[in-house]
Amino acid sequence: MTKVSSPPTVISSPNLIQQNFPGLYSFWKFSRPHTIIGTTLSVLGMYLIALSELRQFPGLSLQGLTLFFSWLACICGNIYIVGLNQLQDIEIDQINKPNLPLASGEYSRFQGQLIVAMTGILALTIAAFQGYYLLGMVGMSLFLGTIYSLPPIRLKRFPFWAAFCIFTVRGVIVNLGLYLHFNWVLSQQSIPLIPVIPPSVLALTLFILVFSVAIAISKDIPDLEGDRQFQINTLTVKLGTVTVFNLSRWILTSCYLGMILGSFFLQSFVNPLFLGLTHVVLLIVLWSRSQQVDLSSQQSIAQFYQFIWKLFFLEYLIFPLSCLLS
């Protein structure tokens, strides 16, 4: 869920949709597709991990309803968070991301406010009907997303607290909250006094937590000019593009090295050969792709940031698959 980070759009809708359904296309851009994909895959990934631990699967109707409504609550929360961020950053986005609906004038401020209000209410309402774990996860995510963007707190002004919001939501709240929710619903047991988190979920949570730090500090590299003009003191503004880029790359490297080594200690929960080899390949691809980045080109930096998100997406496919193959 989260999605307080804001890179350029990762996936563009086909020209046919853009031409024939301009309203839908505008809403797709407003929703920030990269966050929608990330949220969808995190929901699916945690569901598969919870499912892999059950010896007796519940009925397909229960599985389908649980997955759908959990996804819907998270997507609505996702749109609330990214929409609220856009409402507060219209002038900045007119410099950094002029194609966004509010910055370009496709949406009025009132339309943006209406979407944000409706999706926030829907997220909490749907989650409340699904259970305490999901409601807690959605509620905490929306709270952090709100204080990230909204004055007078507006934590995005401060590099540490901005990063804290992003990696806390993406790395901890979403993973643990979704796992506990799915495990509770699918096992059809009462809520335990002290929830038990298996090592596999803790390992993935730690990986995503550290990975989200890299996302949080590198997300502002393409937005340097707009942030500097509006005195948003991001880490890039303070330390410079080269330093933040290298720091982000080494943080990502530590994630992959940690998962490669950790695969040997998780043999009871994952397929260690599959998990280790896939992360070796991804680490090689990361360094190969990073060598091609032109740090003097905003477009090149933005494309690499999109690539980081694709690596993020892949983790929610690879790790659950390694659990299913164990």
How is the topology of this model organized?
Layout: H1 15-20, H2 22-30, H3 33-52, H4 60-88, H5 90-96, H6 101-104, H7 109-130, H8 132-149, H9 159-187, H10 199-218, H11 224-229, H12 235-239, H13 241-262, H14 272-290, H15 298-324
Question: Would you write up a description of this structure?
Answer:
- By secondary structure, the protein is mainly alpha-helical.
- Helices cover 75% and strands 0% of the residues.
- It has 15 helices and no strands.
- The chain has helices at 15-20, 22-30, 33-52, 60-88, 90-96, 101-104, 109-130, 132-149, 159-187, 199-218, 224-229, 235-239, 241-262, 272-290, 298-324.
- The radius of gyration is 20 Å and the shape is globular.
- Residues 2-14 have low confidence and may be disordered.
Low-confidence stretches: 2-14
Number of strands: 0
> Radius of gyration, Cα only, in angstroms?
20 Å
**Globular, elongated, flat, extended or rod-shaped: what is the shape?**
globular
Helix content: over 70%
Which secondary-structure class do the elements indicate? mainly alpha
Keywords:
single chain, 326 residues, disordered N terminus, mainly alpha
In short:
The chain is mainly α and about 325 residues long. The protein is built from 15 helices and no strands.
